[in-house]
Design brief:
By secondary structure, the chain is mostly helical. It has a single domain, classed as MFS general substrate transporter like domains (Growth Hormone, Chain: A), CATH 1.20.1250. The chain has 17 helices and no strands. Helix 3 runs antiparallel to helix 4 and helix 13 packs antiparallel against helix 17. The radius of gyration is 20 Å and the shape is globular. The termini are far apart.
Length: 409
Amino acid sequence: MMLKFVPNRLALIVLISACFIILISMGLRQTFGLFFKAFEEGLGCTRTEFGLAIGIQMLFWGIFAPIFGFLADKFGGSKAVFLGFIIFGLGIYMLYAGPNTGIFFQISLGVLVGIALGATAIGVPVSEVGKHFPNETRTLATGYVTAAASVGYFVSPLFTQYSLGAVGWEQTLKYFMYFIVFGLLSSLFLLSSKKIINATKADRDQSFSSAIKEAFSHKGYILLVLGFFVCGFQITLVGTHVPGYMQDRGMDGWSATIILALIGLFNIFGTLGMGYLGTKYKKKNLLSILYALRAISICVFIFSPPSLLNSIIFGVTFGLLWLSTVPPTNGIVAQIFGTKYLSTLFGVVFLCHQFGAFLGAYLGGYFYDLNGSYDYAWYIAIALSIFATLVHYPINEDPIKRELKTPSY
């Protein structure tokens, strides 16, 4: 079924490579919230310090997403992702081997892992796949890649929770290094597209500076950037602070693990479904509906009594909506501006996503230490959902028509 929409063998190789890359990077990223108690006891960090480290990670992830996107557009996605996994391994090594307290905790978990994610997670792998597929099937292809992240989301929390109990946090982080080595090998097959799909000569001749200027003068691109800020805030708040939130509500550690695992499992269906719907309906309308449903899911979760059933309902509903934003968001950027600078332009959109992620991680810990509760962070997440529902609707998805400049004599 999948092979019917793959245009050539190279596209299939890149698709499979990107799936493994994003499965590993996003899977490992999803587990860090489960380490909060181990880091409190083993390294003496507070919730605010832990939240700050994750916030720094999100910020550096965002800052380096367009940088690695540019490197991928210029030199190839394989080189950019390979470098990212080297940095990822260094960050994980410092976490368990030291120095890993104080500022070094922020450097290893925050700066180094964040820089690495800028190359290995979402932006570059998804955009490199997008370059190999035409607009008619691009959201479906990127949906497969994003669904691979969901497999990582499902498996990694289960493995991590078991490993933390069986061998401790330091040995668990050592196990992570084996996954990173596999990611390095997978990156070798993230090969560049031999041509720019559906491009005119004006599209092919466009300069980098012209592409950036064009994007920021487009109202729809600005609205898309603002909308993705909301996505970052929400998923990082959930991924980072749901374990602590569930513990404070009297639930055991496995309740949070169930939520994270279900998010990963049902994100598979959500991203594939959104990828398919993106080939049939306007992507901006799908995004507006998605953010409205996120607001409902969060409201039911925080205003209902804590229970295993409530955890399951939230894990399922939020999982369906988790990374489902990525295929239509990436698809809109490619549809409007073309694929020549897709990694860079989507990287800029993702930068704003990570500004939101920084605030989601940091404010969750800040409000907890200030008030003993995560409630205000959840209220902000609901309000932002309403905002995102509104800002996507006016986006104009029509492709830009570029004119070939004639030389002057």
